């Protein structure tokens, strides 16, 4: 795909968006822009310092003469469960690094030193190479072979002056891979980082089994791992309270009608513990999001969005109740923000009804298996 084709597609896409924006009215358009601005903010944690340092190290490694002794650590892997905020963090930090920004070279050509690709599921070594070619704007032949695809991908990385390759959902490349395919992927990652005259740096984001895959010998001493662990439900209650206040009050400019003021609602016997009312709300919020920070931010923003759409300038617990119901599809009696037994509820299977559970159990029994937990495949 030529630069003209890319610009033409961009203009056509923007024209379609502008058409819809012109049809919804100024009032609704202002609301949409306000919501878009809300989602544009970023909330950093301590782990962001580790990620930024790792990315800066990748940038610094480029300054080492290509002909000199190679720096083996040319892979940064961000590992964590779904909803941890991996992709958002990577995009944010890359956007803040000037060395990774697009530029016009001496020939007047727009250069994008970073390309983004997603490993689809299921994925094979050949399909991953094709995704890389497509990320470069190249359409390979339908019957291109695996080794040809990788050779072409490596050559075009240098032609396009790409220095960093981001692979999102990287676990898909090896989750269903057999021994040969996993070895091919590992060798491909290794060869990308040590190409003669043009070694690239890889930034991988994924859930298990990505961490396990990166532990293999061929990659172990070539990667830096930044873990995006789940938040400690007992240890970061005040952090989550700060996140809620930041999004509602600072980012949205709204009133928070949920008592989270540490000073006013502190237990006299335990100076660092919130009162039952505030503490229980925050614990329910984390449970509803499976203790994943990215999911917490997403749910809080969605609750704020609900209030904005209702033409209110304040957020209440009821906004969280309705947002969770929309996200999970739960029954009213099974809403984490209202149920007395909220700790026993599993948000991941809240959508399942009795007939769904009966069908799943019958299906497993027909195969000679026994369901131990709905939504979890027996091992």
UniProtKB/TrEMBL annotation:
Residues 72-225 form the AAA+ ATPase domain. SUPFAM superfamilies: P-loop containing nucleoside triphosphate hydrolases (SSF52540). GO terms for molecular function: ATP binding; ATP hydrolysis activity. Transmembrane segments: none annotated. InterPro entries: AAA+_ATPase, AAA_22, P-loop_NTPase. Pfam families: AAA_22. Signal peptide: none annotated. The keyword Nucleotide-binding applies. This is ATP-binding protein. Keywords: ATP-binding, Nucleotide-binding. It comes from the Bacteria.
